[in-house]
Amino acid sequence: MLTVEKITTREEFHRLGPVWNSALERSAANTLTLTWEWLSTWWDVFGEGRELYTLVVRDEEEIIAIAPLLRRTVQHYGLIPFRRLEFLASGEDEADEICSEYLDFILLRGREEQALETIFAYLQEQEEDWDEILLTDIAGESKSLPVLKRLCEWKGFKLEELRNETCIYVNLPSQWQTLIESVSPTFRQRIKKDRRLISNINANLRIIDGAEGFDENFRALVRLHQLRWTSRGEPGVFSSSKFSRFHEMLAPRALSKGWIRLFVLSVDEKPMAALYDFVYGNKMYYYQSGFDIEDSPIRSPGLLIRSYAIENAIESGLYECDFLKGDISGYKAGWRGQTRSILQVRMSRAQSKEAIYVATTKLVDGLRHIKRALKRVAIVSSNPLPTLR
Questions:
Q1: How far apart are CA 280 and CA 284, in angstroms?
Q2: Which residues contact 85 (CB under 8 A, 6 or more apart)?
Q3: At the topology level of CATH, where does 173-318 sit?
Q4: Residues 173-232 pLDDT 10s
């Protein structure tokens, strides 16, 4: 007999702390952004204005599923309020986004379908609680998606894909030399040339994976990151007080678990490049970076320090380096990795609100299409064909 408990208070949520990661480790969705440390820190920073709506499915005393959800009200096109369920660690304002890739339902291996059916049935019974379910940053290869699609078809709900982004990941061999020989000759020579240059000057690479020296070197990362982006006229992620507070609170929790690896490359004792990576489940996740290109004695300080980080990952026995979502061109493509999809999907049911939402979406999309067409016409009109003689 499966039971469902709805967690709605901070006290109930924090009581799950001792058992959360154990359930996560027994699921196919086992990843850093679904750990108790990541999600509870996110809730402490971003919980205001949101309601917890986390579901725990038990078979007697055993947890077989957790749906890490919250609820809030959103206005679509400023017209009608929609009660939305969405994953914890998603839905922040753009300037504050933590970018928690690979969010998902936490489902016990081998019981995914049964557990998700139970969650779906509960949500169907509680239809007065929500109008839409928005699942952001779920992997395209998630075990949950095929089950959700089947359940939506069966129950007459609509499931639509709103966004499809791509990330690059590199399967790591057992030897650095094997990896470096697999990239293009031009890319390989860039790395080797910078490594030769850096070996002939007063340079030092620090790798911080514990509390000692972390604060000082993290400040160096922040300074280099902000320097890089403000020089382009953009704010940089650490200009957000919420983004900064999240990482200040997360760091001691993650460091105690060995989940952070901070790389700082200095020349003449001055930090020149820095990387902020996470290590979890035998994978390295590239999260943030910063470098001073103006004062750098080498051509590509960012690429150089990333090469050292990947070599360190290989030496540590890790089997994957995940560059996460974002631009897949440039240096990321140079590593000749593979790609995976990161999706945003929306579930909804037939009701008057949904009909208005669909009609308005079609109207807005149509207006955008007309605007783009008029812009193209204006460009052509301002560049008339030359007169034939």
A1: 7
A2: 53, 69, 70, 71, 123, 129, 130, 132, 133, 134
A3: Aminopeptidase (3.40.630)
A4: 999 999 999 999 999 999 999 999 999 999 999 999 999 999 999 999 999 999 989 988
Fold agreement (2-165+342-372, 173-318): yes
- Provide the whole-model pTM: 0.91
> Residue ranges per domain, the chain?
2-165+342-372, 173-318
CATH number belonging to domain 2-165+342-372: 3.40.630.30
